[in-house]
Structure formats: structure tokens, C-alpha cells
Design a protein that fits this description.
By secondary structure, this protein is mostly helical. It has a domain of 67 residues. The chain contains three helices and no strands. Helix 1 packs antiparallel against helix 2 and helix 2 packs antiparallel against helix 3.
């Protein structure tokens, strides 16, 4: 399974908008961290890598806050209506049902 398939499966498993967005960004951040570690091992400037990772994490925090802020609270459940009882059958003067 590819990385994209893994991310899609995780996002689909989340039922809330916030959870889905956070999962996606966290997975992306983890993948970027893996790549940054590999680049650092290859001699790339770790200061620049850390700046990029810090920016991604700041954006993740900002995005999570915006989604939370703009996601309406769940609606109150609507109670089931109480059934109206059937009126008694009309009876004639002699007690028989009309």
C-alpha cells in the first residue's frame, strides 16, 4: 500500500472534520520529518530543515484552530413525538358502537 493510500484510509476512518484534517496534516508532517532526517544525514543544513518543520507545525496548529472555530457544534437531538391516543369510539344511546 502506498503512503497516499495509508493517508486516505486514516482520513476516511475519522468521523469528525477536525479529526480528519488533523490526521492528514500529522501524517504529512511525519513524512516531511522522515525526509528531513534523511536529508540531514546526507549533509543538508539542519537549521533550514528545522525552520521548514517549524513552519509546517505552526500551520498545522493554525489550521486545527480554524477548523475547530468554524465547525458548528452538533445540534441538540430532537425528541421523538409522543403519539396522540386514539379517541374512544362513538357509541349510540343503547351502548352500541356506531
Amino acid at each position: 500500500m502506498s503512503v497516499l493510500d495509508d493517508i486516505e484510509a486514516e482520513v476516511a476512518a475519522n468521523t469528525s472534520v477536525v479529526g480528519s484534517v488533523e490526521t492528514l496534516v500529522q501524517n504529512m508532517t511525519a513524512k516531511v520529518q522522515e525526509q528531513a532526517d534523511a536529508l540531514a544525514a546526507g549533509g543538508v543544513d539542519t537549521t533550514r530543515l528545522q525552520m521548514v518543520l517549524d513552519s509546517i507545525r505552526a500551520n498545522q496548529t493554525r489550521l486545527g484552530a480554524l477548523v475547530t472555530q468554524n465547525t458548528p457544534a452538533p445540534a441538540e437531538p430532537v425528541p421523538e413525538p409522543t403519539p396522540t391516543p386514539e379517541p374512544p369510539p362513538e357509541t349510540g344511546g343503547d351502548g352500541s358502537v356506531a
